[in-house]
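Handout, section B. The chain below has 160 residues.
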Amino acid sequence: MLTDVSDAIPTDLRDLRYVQHFSLWAIRTSVACSPHCRTLLREFNRAFAGRFDQGVAAYHALVRDLGGARRKTTIGRPGHIELTHDELSLLALLAAAQNDDRERFLAHARFVMGHNRLDPLCASAGTFTRLLREQGHFFSKPRLDVLQDTAFQANLSALG
């Protein structure tokens, strides 16, 4: 199956969509510094708007579940421009979770985790990416029906 070129994940950090850059930056910063870094939390407030607490909780669950991997995951340091192969796999995993593409998600998850106990990761990645989608952040080019649903939900929220 061919992938639309616009959905291909670039290997240069500067070419990523906001949500891709944010997710990798958050992971890199958590590993290099602290998951409670003030700069990191400020960016979570921007990404998740009025759902900050839910976003942070979903992110911490995702990182905890990724920490259960059997294989060592290579993560770049904050500020490094090139993406590692593992970071590309993580972005593909998150895109598959957000698009409810279970087969693709499981393929990437098996590689990233190095085992088949993937239910916790599936749940945490699904929650994290759903919250981002609800804020209008998409890992890959969104389907028209998703955009319409998002716009419809935004209109409902605005009406009170």
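Note. The first helix runs from residue 18 to 32. Compare this with the example in section A.
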